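USER:
Make up one protein:

ASSISTANT:
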Amino acid sequence: MTDASTTTPNQTAVQWLEVSPSYAGQRIDNFLRTQLKGVPKSLIYRILRKGEVRVNKGRIKPEYKLQAGDIVRVPPLRLAEKTEKEPFAQPLLERLEAAIVYEDKGLIIVNKPAGIAVHGGSGVSAGVIEAFRQLRPEAKELELVHRLDRDTSGLLMIAKKRSMLRHLHTQLRGDGVDKRYLALVRGNWPAAKKKVSAPLLKNNLRSGERMVEINPEGKEALTLFKVLKRFGDFATLVEASPITGRTHQIRVHAKHAGHSIAGDPKYGDEEFSKTIRNLGGKRLFLHAYALTITLPDNKTLSVEAPVEPLWEKTLEQLNGKV
């Protein structure tokens, strides 16, 4: 229900939004980001800070958690001049459609290619989630369940319903999700080194770039590692299983162990990465290849995603070199 007050072409009317049970428990800032498509995040946080958003006629804070039946008043919003938004190029949409490894009425799992962001922001106009909103216009509640770094490839979950999103978030907070990655790392990883446990602290640089470091003041983080194949003393293909889900966790833990991942521009070893690039490996060698979850009906779902041909060819070249 919307109050049709006088508006200008670039200003919206007052909106009254009734919270359905599926959104109960969600923070008001996240709720507004899903409801106000196309409105900049900065504008959403500004109207929250100024107390212009009311819930049941009262002021609330950005961390307020909604209850079913709440009435949210959104003030008139002055938007920038709208430009016609270019739809995603058809080849990219077809590539993502072909990369789906599982889909049902509540969930999509896609084998995300390396180099594609999962969502817009930080200089990227749009990503996988925006592309799937274009591919699945009838699914009004599409949301990312988790994230993958832009340069990491592999299995990415997208919820088609709020109920599935809540279910999988509960699993991610516990031990209900088993995620496994392939990583090509520098040097000869010792078979006895089966885990790295080191706290991680996020830092945002002035440039806006996000860096993560080992720091006692950071959050607890644990990654399990298993050697899959050795390439002499030069490189090792390992399986990495993140028990916690921190930003850049596998990349930083691999570096901390003395075995940086090939092609990692932030935490890698440039000489090692250069050698891999010269073999044709122009990418970050981190791939989310296996995922096991429990669906809401208690059935176990296990999926795997193959690596791209470039990855396979690079390892063949590396095999012939050592």
Helices lie at 28-35, 41-49, 90-98, 128-135, 162-173, 249-256, 270-278, 309-321. The two ends are 67 Å apart (CA to CA).
